[in-house]
Design brief:
- By secondary structure, the chain is of the alpha+beta class.
- It folds into 3 domains: about 170 residues, no CATH class; about 45 residues, no CATH class; about 130 residues, Glutaredoxin (3-Layer(aba) Sandwich).
- The chain has 13 helices and 10 strands.
- A 5-stranded mixed β-sheet has the order 8-7-6-9-10, sandwiched between helices.
- The longest helix has about 40 residues.
- It is flat and about 105 Å long.
- About 30% of the residues are buried.
Amino acid sequence: MKKGHKILALISRVLLGLTFVFSGFVKAVDPLGTTYKIQDYLQAFGLSFFDQYALFFSFAIFCFEFVVGMALLLGTSQRFFSWLAFVFMSLMTLLTLVIALGNPVSDCGCFGDALLLSNWQTFGKNIILTVLAILLISNKAPLYKVFGKKTQKWATWVCLLMVLLVGIHSLRHLPMLDFRPYKTGNHIPELMQIPPGAPMDSVVMEYIYEKEGVYHSFSLENYPAGDTSWTFVDRKEKVIRRGYEPPIHDFVLLHPAYGDITQEVLNNSDYTFLWVSYKLEYANRAAVQDFLHIQRYAAARGYPFYALTASDRDIVDEWIYEYDIPFDFCTVDEITLKTMIRSNPGLMLLKNGQILHKWAWRDLSTLIKDLDLPLEETYWSKAPSNKELVVAAQFFVLVLIALCFLYLFRLTSLLWEHRRLRKQMQQND
């Protein structure tokens, strides 16, 4: 019985550890995505005054999850990290129950954009993980561990440092892995289509009438037709069941003079530059001259260049006046812009509706050095192949190498200690 319990606890530890590592890693490769999700939660619970700390919370969460997950897999401080995982999962289970009941946000964001779960699916997942944590802490017997007491704390610091470096790099540039529909190589028009036979939204009409100051809603079957004592007020559509929603459903570019130019941009067989800033008020201004340099190059080559933002027109006019900006600004939904590129501002290159490349404002030098040639003669003329699994594998290989060096250090220390004690015993004899 004890042996079976120990095996069950070991399985629980591995499953918990892998889940925590995966959750922490996919958040670390996209820290701004986690920041936006935290801000959604804060706004939903009326805590918007904490928005300024959302980025800090993002780093804290993915560092915590990754370190706890690695500690569980390595057997570091077994009791401490087992209890830490249990307390964390207990709190998350209660939180996700509240969210599932109230549905203030559409998805939990617990696995970033890598794996989208509904709120009830998240609650169920958290119950399972909490049970695994209970099985783990109920086991009193020591389980297999990789490092000893002297080196396990260094293993923890190595894991923390590695995931921090991933988060910082992804924040300063662009996410190392892109799980969003606007990732490089994707064809936007294809992702906007609804396949034949896909389920549509199920909608019923709700009619609002007023009688003697009292408002009442009716359906089409029971509204007071012919009853003049009721006064019609409004008609609303109520969605009973959501149908299929394409991955990209809100990509609309509104030009101040030409109106909706979405199809014109997507159907352009030449290269199109999209300068993206979800809010000009928060945009970094350090690379404005680089963007202007790229726009002049685009104008000379006949490539369209548009600026996309959700800022009000007076803010746009201030930017145009301050920097003498010659390109057209289009209005686009803020959430869409945040999803398109995790940089404010950033740059996107399209051709025939396909996303060829994306740049954070810090990385424009890689493009500018090739701007003495037509784009078709440069590296940027084709979309690179996506290598998500390769990037993820490289990271974990680096972590493994660092831990192996630490493990070799541990073995070397043990050998030297054994040799020292043996030599001391021989001297005593």
